[in-house]
Write a structure and sequence with these properties.
Layout (H helix, E strand, L loop, with lengths): L13 H18 L1 E5 H18 L4 H10 L3 H15 L7 E8 L6 E7 L4 H11 L6 H47 L1
Antiparallel strand pairs: 1-3, 2-3
Length: about 180
């Protein structure tokens, strides 16, 4: 029995497991959301949250500690400049694991590992679902006719404004030319 044994082996050696977690963390910091198996996502969540907590300090030793694992400079800059700022004073729980179901090829359980403060894509998808998906041809035609009428109204207003500007500028030009003639 595995009493009090933490972590998952993921059927890998220690070095391979460490490299896997580092690569998953780097990808998460770059893309804010990654798709992987449930076991890898749960294990990577622990690793990533420790790195984010360490990065929240923001001092030089914290940067060096995180840089030991995250070799990609862009991901490191993004972690310290954007992610830590957006996390703010959140006391842990920076990531979320959302289960997706089984993979078609081998039946492995898939999940999405994402940063909690960067779930804008999920909110956009929910808004799209709330909007009506199908419209009848009449509704589309009516909508296009209304848009055309609005465009014509805007164009006529612009033409009227241009004519008013021309009218106001013409009288100003005539008196100035008359004054020039009187002076000569």
């Amino acid at each position: 029995m595995r009493h009090a044994v933490k972590g998952r082996k993921l059927k890998r050696t220690a070095e391979h497991r460490k490299a896997l977690l580092i690569n998953l963390a780097t990808a998460l910091f770059k893309h804010k959301k990654i798709k992987t198996t449930v076991a890898k996502a749960k294990e990577a969540r622990i690793f990533v949250e420790r790195l984010i907590t360490k990065a929240r300090k923001g001092d030089i030793p914290a940067r060096r500690y995180v840089a030991r694992f995250i070799k990609d400079r862009e991901a490191l800059k993004e972690l310290f400049n954007e992610i830590v700022v957006k996390v703010g004073d959140r006391p842990g729980g920076y990531t979320r694991v959302v289960k997706l179901g089984s993979r078609r090829g081998d039946g492995a359980d898939l999940a999405i590992l994402e940063l909690v403060d960067y779930n804008e894509g999920v909110a956009k998808e929910q808004k799209k679902k709330e909007a009506p998906v199908t419209q009848t041809k009449k509704e589309v035609q009516e909508k296009s006719e209304v848009e055309e009428e609005e465009i014509k109204a805007e164009m006529s207003e612009e033409v009227q404004q241009d004519e008013e500007i021309k009218k106001t500028s013409e009288p100003q030009n005539k008196p100035s030319s008359e004054t020039d003639k009187k002076e000569n």
